[in-house]
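Posting this for the archive.
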Amino acid sequence: MCKAILLLVLLLCPALAGAAEGLDTGDTAWMLVSSALVLAMLPGLALFYGGMVRAKNVLSTSMHVFAAMAIVGVQWVVIGYSLAFGGEGAFIGGFRHVFLAGITPESLTGTIPTYVFVMFQGMFAIITPALIAGAVAERMKFSTYCVFILLWSTLVYDPVAHWIWGDGGWLLEDGALDFAGGTVVHFSSGISALVLALVLGKRRGYPHERIVPHNLPWTLLGAGLLWFGWFGFNAGSALSAGSSAALAFATTQTAAAAGALAWMIAEWLHAGKPSALGAASGIIAGLVVITPAAGFVTPAWALVMGLSAGFVCYGGVLLKHRLGYDDSLDAFGVHGVGGAWGAIATGVFATVGASGLITGNFHQLWIQIVGLVATGIYAVAVTLGILFALKATMGLRISEEDEMRGLDQAAHSETGYNI
């Protein structure tokens, strides 16, 4: 009897070991939910941006986000995933997984099906160019915008994602830390948004005419949805339902709250009163800054990072008034400045699974800065190239008459409010 039991245990052990190393249904369930949470951030972004523009441009601004869902959602399956994760080159993935070739329902990435990993990463690829739309609201041709995000995703986002997250990526090999996209998502989109705002020029009447948000309750609701979805964005980047996800969940919540508080204080001190728009912006600032560090810092350091985010990004938004460029919805001030500070702060405060400057590791801070500089130079150069090509072929701006009429009518023959 004992021999029979021993034989059964020996037979089961390899199977149990294979199960431990293979598909984990708990991890898979969490990643399916996380992917959906990140997708929910897109309508949240549409509300956030849509509420900040004038009523005559609410649909066109929302369409910038939904167009990214359609265009990049297709691009990612056709070529984007392969360029980012389809090889082991230092600078680009390759063409091995074009149209997701070579991936089957049985394929695994870690403990989850590769299809789930593809879709989770695809949500990041979608939201990144959508963030850029904040810099071009109310004046860019919709057709040109659609072509721009397709080219930008292919030529900027996919290579940068490979540098930092793909097998063999040169920044990954050098030890760069980016838990959920501080450099890959926010800094790359933010710095590109600044280039787009400078090349496109100011909105008609800016800054002499008063241009105010038409529906701040929309913006607050959008900020709330973004906060909600960001738990999938950050905690999902652990790629498992374990302790790393739990830490990222806690640091995300802490930094978002601290960012909102700090922005309100900064606005109170600078302008005399805190605003609803400021509170919403502070939430996003805290979330942006914690994103690269979410799984590498303790909640106490997340509190410090969130508080600093409110003040740093508030200053980043004020830059456009001092320097005179028209970043319509503060894409650079929040995502560019916040993404840069988050990447640097990760190199300073990392203590979980990595070591930063506070533990004596100066090299980590150095490689974070190298990653920012390389990403910034590359994104600026390629974005400029795309814009000059599109300006010469399609044109970038709508006509002055259409800008006065509003893009809802000019680009879509619709109106947001039929009252």
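The longest helix spans residues 362-393. The CA atoms of residues 193 and 366 lie 25 Å apart.
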